[in-house]
Amino acid sequence: MQTTGIITDTSIDLDTLKPKISLLLDTNDKDTINKLKNENKLNVELKKWYQKRSLDANNYCWVLCEKISQEISKDGTIMTKEEVYKDAIRNVGAFKPLIIEEKAFEEFKRIWEKQGLGYQIQETARKDKCVRINCYYGSSSYDTKEMSRLIDALVQEAQQLNIETKPKEEIDSLLAQWH
Questions:
Q1: Is residue 157 a contact partner of residue 88, using CB atoms and an 8 Å limit?
Q2: Which residue of 31, 66, 106, 152 sits 20 to 30 Å from the alpha carbon of 81, by its own alpha carbon?
Q3: Structurally, how many domains does the chain consist of?
Q4: Euclidean distance between CA atoms 170 and 164, whole angstroms
Q5: Which of the 8 DSSP states describes residue 114?
Q6: Between helices 81-92 and 144-160, what is the axis angle to 10°?
Q7: Residue 24 burial by CB count (10 A; 0-12/13-18/19+): exposed, middle or buried?
Q8: What does the alpha-carbon distance between residue 61 and residue 89 come to, in Å, rounded to a whole number?
């Protein structure tokens, strides 16, 4: 069972001195809860809730990438919407810096980049048989704040190229619609 909820109370079990948590869940599935209540042990994961970005925001991201690609390609320089997207990810995207052994680098890069178009590896340095890299995440993993930053960067690039963009209020509305 997976749901959302809030912690309503915490205490300490006097016998084990371990924390106890009471939850108010956003579900009415009493049958599943009663079955789980009778289990000896459960896997539990609690983490901060966040709203996911909307699919409309993702669609607008790709519309911007296509328009930028078309405008840049007018002078004979061919740039695909995928290249525009990957550049935007590298410019403003979320990444994890890592150091990896040279002998494992190519295999790691292949596996990382297989996750999707935005998943990229940027090599920043080599030293002592190790490679320092930035591992960029694709926008499919972005939360609303990260997606907003990506779209803002694409809007700025489009405006610099005199491409008409949606008004800020409409873009904010796209980001506010959750799926």
A1: yes
A2: 106
A3: 2
A4: 13
A5: T
A6: 120
A7: exposed
A8: 11
List the alpha helices (DSSP H) in the chain: 30-37, 55-73, 81-92, 102-113, 144-160, 168-176
Distance separating alpha carbons of residues 173 and 124, to the nearest angstrom: 37
For residues 124 and 166, state if they share a domain.
yes
Are 71 and 141 in a shared domain? Answer: yes
- Looking at the fold, whether 72 and 139 belong to one and the same domain comes out as yes
Tell whether 75 and 136 lie within a shared domain.
yes
pLDDT tens by residue, the chain, 179 residues? 888 889 999 999 999 999 999 989 888 888 888 888 888 888 988 888 766 655 688 899 999 999 999 999 998 889 999 999 999 999 998 899 999 999 999 999 999 999 999 999 999 999 999 999 999 999 988 888 899 999 999 999 999 999 999 888 888 887 776 43
Number of residues that this document lists for the chain = 179
Residue 11 is part of which domain span?
1-49
